[in-house]
Amino acid sequence: MTETAERHEFGAEVGRLLDLVVHALYSEREIFLRELVANAADAVDRRRFEALTDASLMLPAEAKVRVVPDKAARTLTISDPGTGMSKAELTQHLGTIARSGTLAFAKSLADAPAADKPNLIGQFGVGFYSAFMVAERVEVTSRRVGTEEAWLWASEGRGDYTLAPAERAEAGTDIVLHMKADAEEFLEPMRLQTIIRKWADHITIPITVTQDGVEHPANEGTALWRKSKSEVTEEASLEFYRHLGNIFDKPWSTLHWRAEGALEFSALLFIPGAKPFQAVEGDRESKVRLHVRRMFITEEAALLPPWLRFVQGVVDTEDLPLNVSREMLQATPVLARIRRAVTGKVMSELKFRAKDAEDYTKFWSVFGPVLKEGVWEDAEHRQELAGLLRFRSSAVEGWTSLAEYVARMKPGQEAIHILLGDNAATLATSPQMEGFRAKGVEVLLLTDQIDAFWPEQLERFDDKPIRSITQGSVDLSAVEGTAPEGEAADLARLLPLLKEALAKEVSEVRATDRLVDSAVVLAATESGPDLQMQRLMRRAGRGFGGGLPVLEVNPRHALIRRLAEKAAAEGAELAEDAGLLLDLARLQDGDTPRDPVAFARKVAEALAIGGA
Description:
This protein is α+β, with helices and mostly antiparallel strands. Residues 98-103 and 117-125 have low confidence and may be disordered.
């Protein structure tokens, strides 16, 4: 270390991360080369793109990634003429933990099958650190394009690293690995070429391996999406899929096609078989990569709508200029037509695959909530998406569609009935369901947060209205089935007294025929949000329109009959009873009583009296 070198501690969890990488993935050491070569190729791509708008940043005539083994010095060097890194960027990218965090990485290592562990490094954005699986010391010399300064970052993979001024004739980065004694196999040129062909043959930047002073090509560098489907092997397609980032399972579906005619582009898209790791929570933008004549332009072209953001891949067109700007991307009609075509292709694939219920369930279990967002926000595709929705149901096992539900509707049933909550098993036993169970009317059980929103936009399917059974009054009298048993109490006195006692907490108290075993249930007003939406908004600390809930009472229940008799007495006081009924209804719907301590005390007193 020179006198001017600065010593820095690694970011909070890097030390633990390095230990995980070195030891947990030790048997798959060759992936370090995949990660370093991919990083170098990305840096070249970024510089090439920046040079489109700033000619001073142009790449050298023969831009390539060079892999240079030196057996005598026991070093392996990976060099690229890419964007390079400034001092601050070296600290940011190499001195701090990836956004995913060590804990998530460690859990994935523990849970993953042995065959999947080689892919976890790339998945969690910690690829550079894999160098320490084979190197006892790593030195990174980098010069940011457009600057004269170069810096040397160095570390032995323990608790710290150093930064010192350095020299590099051109912009770019050199990574020098001082290899461990048991890693000398990675100094053999043939071994290096084999690894690169295995992991990085699809990278379009030329990669060379130096042997006896001569550079030998190590990758074919052909864009897979430009080949015909028959030319691409399953292995090559799978490795490209994994190279895209954050996706390390096998794809559920692969879409590979070329559009020709008025609009020309090639596309290779993947629908993952598992939910990709999302480095930035809340990021809803599609990250499908846009290329122009094989050159990477951006992954922020929004080539698919947010509700298809799980789709990964590349779209490559001849119909845009290489120097396309972000502003032009937003305005050009060419890109709008590409978006429509790509979205249509993905939708066609989903509709085709949905014909196989078991196969489609694999997709729906992972991405169903995301697809529902489209019903909420995309009027153009709303009805088309409705046919792809799947639900848990009170009537059938597994998943069912809206079309299947409509085919099972009872004579006299006019609406598609839904019930929203947090858990399907709990919903199936809810008091809200009693009248529907008694008449054999099916209810769809919705448990995703987005379910509180999209029915408001869809409204109807196959000309049948979609209604939450907790919203407004429910009339099942036209449906054939068993009528409620028992004599109904006269509620002429009770209902006004309950309404008076609960005037500040409910908008109405009314009798209902939809209860069988329960005394009371809550409902939302016809014009306001349903009960689940109200709960979500309360949890978020937000108010909502539509007024107070409605308390519905079962006139055939023993408790209500007793309260009706009590109400008939002159000067009856029902304030406490009314409060208990409301708390009981709230509990049944998964809410807490207004005053849990007071409620518990009253229940205990009632039990004591009953026991006596």
